[in-house]
Amino acid sequence: MSPAPTPIDTAPYDAVLLLSFGGPEKPEDVLPFLQNVTRGRGIPDERLKEVGEHYYSFGGKSPINDQNRALLTALRESFDEIGLDLPIYWGNRNWAPYLTGTMREMAADGVRRAVVIVTSAYPSYSGCRQYRENLEDAAREVPDAPRIDKLRHYANHPGFVSSFVESTAESLSRLPDGSAIAYVTHSIPAAMNATSGPDGNGYVDWHNDVAAEITAELERRTGQTRRTDLVYCSRSGPPQVPWLEPDVNDHLDVLAAEGQPGVAVVPIGFVSDHMEVIYDLDTEAAKTAEKLGLPMARAATPGTGEKFVTMLRDLVVERAAAERGEQPDRPCAGKLGPAWDDCRHDCCPPLRRPKEAV
To answer: Can you tell me which residues bind Fe(2+) (predicted)?
Structure first.
């Protein structure tokens, strides 16, 4: 029997929180879930039911909660491998287990300070500040709520980038030589991107930097250059409000018209196979590509892959060391450098949403 690992210093933290978006788990959950997501935006239930068809086509269940359960298990195993003795809690923004309830549980267990892993890798209001606002709102509802620090953005961490290098290489192996790459992320309002990150345009800049790193490594391995683009999925909201473009389906039209031999669709904006991946890409985009006669292969998301899980574990250790006043290594790929630990008060401000935007 191998000896138990020497415990890792986790001070000042006594817990880890996994914080995610949440999703319905059965058909009767779909409408209440969408009402939660769009609360305060004045969207009629009739419109929400239309959006809900995406979920009903998969049995009324989003994959995200099961993916988070699998990630919790993988994190626990990874923590135990190195003697990282911290309990891991899980809360959601929009569905059970709700964040406020989880924070109550943490407080009842005596947790005083925790570090949070958010299942969103890039800077933007919806991907960062809104989660921080959720944490603040929950803390106001919970007596003796723990202090919670957020991990730095990890999209340009080598563990995240290398996961996509491998999955992109695998998807290209299923396509004709010279196939293009379409890096895909969730579209957001152009105005949200303009104010994302401390200096603006952070959402697009970070995605472009990650895409460039993946492309450069694939070119180094193969000696081939190919067309690459950053494109978007899941646009919502009224048509008069500009969102980031082009849409992945429109882009597939362009590639087919150019005579591209195929396309690897790489969802670099997602940590696992969310509904946007299995519906927008595996269903809608795949149907578009088939109609166009354009060979398409979708690259896998990091999910519970070893590189991704190890990265999250290492970021917990890194942040704990930084909070103790040490100078830990901050692994980073790309040109933008490692992200900040603490966001500026004016970073990623919220937008005023028009009514009936979904």
So the answer is: 186, 276
Q: Where in 58-206 does DSSP place strands (E)?
A: 88-92, 113-118, 147-150, 180-186
Q: Do β-strands 147-150 and 228-233 pair in parallel, antiparallel, or remain unpaired?
A: unpaired
Is there a binding annotation on residue 98?
no
178-194 pLDDT per residue, tens: 999 999 999 999 999 99
pTM (2 decimals)? 0.94
236 labelled ligand-binding:
no
- Can you give the length of the chain in residues? 358
The closest alpha carbon to 332, from 166, 152, 195, belongs to 152
Alpha carbons 96 and 101: distance in angstroms, whole number: 9
**C-alpha closest to that of 263 among 197, 167, 178:** 178
Q: Which residues contact 191 (CB under 8 A, 6 or more apart)?
A: 242, 351
Q: How far, in Å, CA of 155 to CA of 157, rounded?
A: 6
The mean pLDDT of the chain is 95
Residue 88 exposure: Cα atoms within 13 Å on the Cβ side: 22
The SS3 assignment for 299 reads coil
pLDDT of 157-180, one tens digit each? Answer: 999 999 999 999 999 999 999 999
Q: What is the pLDDT of residues 280-317, one digit of tens each?
A: 999 999 999 999 999 999 999 999 999 999 999 999 99
List the one residue out of 300, 155, 173, 265 whose CA is nearest residue 213: 155
**CA distances (Å), origin 312, targets 104, 198, 321:** 24, 23, 14
Cα distances from 154 to residues 22, 27, 98, 298, in angstroms, run 20, 33, 24, 22
Using alpha carbons, select from 250, 266, 248, 255 the residue that is nearest to residue 295: 255
- CA max distance for the chain: 65
37-96 pLDDT, tens digit per residue, is 988 777 788 888 888 898 999 999 999 999 999 999 999 999 999 999 999 999 999 999
